[in-house]
Structures are given as C-alpha cells and as structure tokens.
Amino acid sequence: MRKILGVIIVQLFNQTFDQVRKSLPRMQRLGVTHILISPPQKSHSSRSWWARYQPVDFTRIEGPLGTLTQLKTLCDQAATRGLAIVVDTVIHHLSNEGRYLRTRGGRIEAAQYPRFSTPDFRGLHMLGKGRGLPILNTDSPWVRAQLRDYIHGLFGLGVRGFRIDSAKHMDPHLFPHLFAGLPPVLVFGELVYAQPGDFPPDYFRSMRAYDFPLARSIKSAFAPGGDLGQLVQPQALSGHLSVPFVNHHDLIKNRSAFDYFRIGDVRDRQLAYAYLLARPEGIPLVYGSDLSAKEVKAGLTFRRLSGGRPLQWVAAGRNEVAARAGDQLALAINKSGHPWRFQTRLRPGAYVDLVSQARYWTHGEHFEMWLGPRSAALVAPG
Q1: What are phi and psi of 371, to 5 degrees?
Q2: Residues paired with residue 351 on neighbouring β-strands, in sequence order
Q3: What is the pLDDT of residue 127?
Q4: pLDDT digits over 300-309, tens only?
Q5: Does pTM surpass 0.90?
Q6: Domain boundaries along the sequence of the chain
C-alpha cells in the first residue's frame, strides 16, 4: 500500500451534512485532512444513530443526515479547502426492519428491499439478543455489482475515502473488485483483532485497519498500575497499515463490546492523545468531541511540525515517559499524582509547551521543565 504522510482523520459522528459543512473552516485551521461522516444511504426509518448502520437502499442518499445535493455540496466545499470527505460504508448487511424482513428461529423467511430479495442474503448476523441483521451474499454477481455501483457513485459525488464497517466479517477478496477503476483513495476497515499477527493479510491489499492492538497497548499503559514504558515499543500494526485511535464511536456507543480497547478515564484519554499524535506511525483518527482537549490541539500542531520524524525516547518509567523528535521537539507525559522534572537535550533557543502555552529558554543544550501531576507537554520552538 502507498505511504501517506500528513494525513489526519476526524470523525464527526452522526452530524448532518450541513453541520459538517459548517465545521470545514475549523477543521482546516486545525490541520485536519480527512473528515469521516456517518453512513449516508437510505436506512432504517428510526432517527437514532444506530439506524444509519442498517441500510435499505444504496441507490438513494437520504435520511436524517441530509440529501444527495447536500452531500455533494459538502464534498465540493471540502475539496476547495483541501479537505477530503470519508464515508462510513456499511455493505455487510441490511436493515432488519419488519417492513423489509421476516425471520423465524434465527433464519430468514422472506426479504424484500428496493434492490435485494431473499436469494441475495446468506443468513443473519446475530447481535446479542436482537433478531439479527440480514447478511448480503457477496458471492452473488448482482450483489457485488450493487455494492460496486454504490462505492463508485459516492466517489462520483466527491467522496475521497471509505471506512468499511464490519470488514472483519467480509471476504477480503471482495474489496479489490469494489475499488477497481478508482484512483487511490483512503480506505480503512473495522478489523477487530487484539494482536498484529491475528490480522488476515489479504485485507491489506485493499485497505488499512483500525489499530486495535495499539489501542489495547495504550489502554494497558494508562490503566491503574499500568506501565507507560510499554509505549516505547507497543504492540501495534506497521505504520503503513495502521489507523491508530484513542477513541471512536464504537468505544462510546458500544462500551461493553469494546471495553478491551477503551480508556474509561477522560483525563487518561487526553494524555493518551498526546502520545498518539506525537507518534509518527500511521494515519491517526480523532473523535470529533475530543477536539476541544488541549492535548489534542497541541498534538495536531506537534504532528505537523515534526514532519514524520521518529521519536527518540529519553525516559521510560511506569508513570513517566519522554521523547524527542529531532532536536527542537519533545514529548513528555506524567500520569502520576506527583510533579516530575523532565530533562532532555534540545537546540538552544526559545520554546513553548503547546499544551499549557508556558514558555522556556535554553542557552545550552540542556532543557528542563517541571511537569505537573497527570499532565502532558508537547514542546516546540516558540
């Protein structure tokens, strides 16, 4: 897969196309490059967020998020600002709404949607105690053609990226067919595996993946009694395959199912963002409601200034870690309840902590600062 530098994704979850459009100037100022929006196709009639993940008709862009015209306007205006719209793409299953589907005993009795009927399904994807979601039979040429038309139609509207929902449950050999004929775009999948070696490599012919192994490493490091030192060499996907994250909608909306990867404490999440965004590997995803955190804003600036320089670790303890990126940028995190004196070598000059806005000067190569309890610093020339 091709290497992409300087890309940052923000997920503006369940926002209307007009709301996202109005946020474009702010996203541009923050240095965001890609904006992930919720599924746009006609879906389950409920206005709740989960209904967008139950498609009904891929040929129609309509529903609570907005119309086809509003999506096209969003894509066009994003492009004029150098931003790309990424669509959350649900092509594994359809809605289980009673007007379209009849089931009995965990089996499909009858299904009739605008473009699909009973033979187009392979069974039910069971979710807890629910009635299940009808799984599309992607071996069917008709189904494959409908899904390919949907992907290509979104690209024609100006969409320049795709998140593949439930990718883990789909044939990886389907995706080269769906994206054939399109220029390179950002594609990443929901592949929920805890260890890097668990990922089937065939998926990576077509997409990157959420870096769940890294999320697990980060949660373990920031947990009570955890060791921040493991962040120096975490379990993680290779950078050219990875979309690392601290938070996204499933960790908010499906907490029990994703508890293995979710940092429950808000302050720990904010500190984790400082690490995630300073780390140069992968294409990071930031959850939209987290953008107000000082550590996130500082991390976005730090990442832009670092230009992909690797982190050189200068301290790695259970409660404190620190690293340099070149000779003018530094990261430090203190998760303990006590102050910590952070020292490293930086080029002589004026510096600012992008998190606290505190200013420092050094006349030699010795740089020193006191880091408060449960805080992070991202130091840059200033």
Answers
A1: -100, 125
A2: 360, 381
A3: 77
A4: 999 999 999 9
A5: yes
A6: 9-308
Amino acid occupying residue 83: L
Residues of the chain with pLDDT below 70 are 1-5, 128-129
CATH number of 9-308: 3.20.20.80
Please count the residues of the chain: 382
Q: What is the token pair recorded at 265?
A: 């404490």
Regarding beta strands 330-334 and 359-362, do their DSSP bridges make them parallel or antiparallel, or are they unpaired?
unpaired
| Rounded CA separation 131/260 (Å) | 25
3-state secondary structure 255-273: CCCCCCCCCCCHHHHHHHH
Quick one: tokens of 242?
Answer: 């990875």
CA 11 from chain centre, in angstroms, equals 7
> What local confidence, expressed as pLDDT, does residue 129 receive?
67
Residue matched to tokens 């200068």: 314
Instruction: Spell out the SS3 assignment of the chain.
Output: CCCCCCCCEEECCCCCHHHHHHCHHHHHHHCCCEEEECCCEEECCCCCHHHHHCEEEEEEECCCCCCHHHHHHHHHHHHHCCCEEEEEECCCECCCCCCCEEEECCEEEEEECCCCEHHHEEEEECCCCCCCEEEECCCCHHHHHHHHHHHHHHHHHCCCEEEECCHHHCCCCHHHHHHCCCCCCEEEECCCCCCHHHCCHHHHHCCEEECHHHHHHHHHHHCCCCCHHHHCCCCCCCHHHEECECCCHHHHHCCCCCCCCCCCCHHHHHHHHHHHHHCCCCCCEEEHHHCCCHHHHHHHHHHHHHCCCCCEEEEECCCEEEEECCCCCEEEEECCCCCEEEEEECCCEEEEECCCCCEEEECCCEEEEEECCCEEEEEEEC
CA 298 to CA 178: how far, in whole Å? 38
- Which pLDDT belongs to residue 131? 81
**Which two three-digit tokens encode residue 277?**
């965004």
Parallel, antiparallel, or unpaired: how do β-strands 55-61 and 330-334 relate? Answer: unpaired
Is 9:246 a contact under the CB 8 Å cutoff? no
- Identity at 75, one-letter amino acid code: C
Question: How far apart are the C-alpha atoms of 223 and 244, rounded to whole Å?
Answer: 18
